[in-house]
Amino acid sequence: MTQFRVAALYKFTPLVADKALQDKLLTACRDQDVYGTLLIASEGINGTLAGAPDAIEAVLKVIRSLPGCADIEHKDSFADEQPFLRMKVRLKKEIVTLGVPGVDPQKAVGSYVAPEDWNDLISAPDVVTIDTRNDYEVRIGQFKGAVNPETTSFREFPDWFRKFRETRPNARIAMYCTGGIRCEKSTAFALTEGLDEVYHLKGGILKYLETVPEEDSLWEGDCFVFDRRVAVRHGLELGDYTTCHACREPLGPEDLKSPLFIAGVSCPHCHDARSEEQRQRYAERQRQEARAAERGERHVGAVLESDAPDD
Predict the structure, then answer these.
(1) In whole angstroms, what is the distance from residue 44 CA to residue 13 CA?
(2) Are 9 and 203 in contact, with CB atoms under 8 Å apart?
(3) With the C-alpha atoms ordered 129, 219, 204, 99, is the resulting torsion angle positive or negative?
(4) 63 beta partners
């Protein structure tokens, strides 16, 4: 069975993020039959790509040729099926949207902590561990004892953090996210807010799950990923989650047993928030997906595929 290489990457570096660069990257990916999402902005590049191992390497070679990207890091995992439906390259104001002017990870960020040193840090009694991800991601897994800001968008994080800091003014702060990019922004923001000491997990949860043995781990649950795999666990193995086509919430085995779950139409998290007209529209989309599957085709509009985490 052919395995797809999934490469998650980001780099904060000054770029001329224009249509010429957008077209260059899109062409490189399409030429190699690589799918996924890349976000480009004047502050850098962010995204996840999937394709044949050699194809991913060819696209990475193009990305490394960009200014400041020669040493770009990427985190690899593998999937038995192509986890993306299409290839997108998007021009953005920020490659991860915090929405606070003047926050620049290229100038100053928190102290990086290697995965093998993370447990000792977050176990210290004077350290508060903060999950910088959104609530639907946190719901299926997080580090033991971590604070959940309960945000629906990364743009909400600054206001939440300012209020939270008032309750723990003397605590040492440790932050983490999926792959590291949101922590680059959040720790840079924390420094502009006057903190002298703030830490973040180098490589994010993905690197931790790849590096730290499960028997030594302080991670509880699965890690949400922004593609059709939905979630991964220790060793970056595939988790037991799927996605609601209506609201994109991750659904575990118990969610699928709920009477409010209707494949392609609704789930316990969105059933009461959808109108009958919406449910009928989702049901028609589900029928189209089923017909496409019978023909051995992919129905591109069938899944509300998540983009790279720009919010």
Answers:
(1) 5
(2) no
(3) negative
(4) none
Largest separation between any pair of C-alpha atoms in the chain: 61
Which residues belong to the active site?
177
- Name the amino acid, one letter, at 109: V
Per-residue pLDDT tens over the stretch 232-266: 999 999 999 998 988 889 999 999 999 999 988 99
Which residues are paired to 37 by β-bridges? 48, 88
Q: Are 181 and 10 in contact (CB under 8 A)?
A: yes
What is the C-alpha to C-alpha distance for residues 126 and 273, in angstroms, rounded to an integer? 41
**Contacting residues for 302 by C-beta, under 8 A, at least 6 apart:** 85, 245, 264, 285, 286, 288, 289, 292
Handedness of CA 64, 42, 12, 50 (dihedral sign): negative
What is the β-pairing status of strands 172-176 and 127-131?
parallel
The total of other beta-carbon atoms located within 10 Å of residue 218's CB is 16
Q: Does residue 221 contact residue 141 with C-beta atoms inside 8 Å?
A: yes
Per residue in 158-189, pLDDT tens? 999 999 999 998 899 999 999 999 999 999 99
Distance between CA atoms of residues 224 and 174, nearest Å: 20
Nearest to 246 by CA among 286, 300, 298: 286
| Pair 50, 227: CB distance under 8 Å | yes
> The pTM is what?
0.88
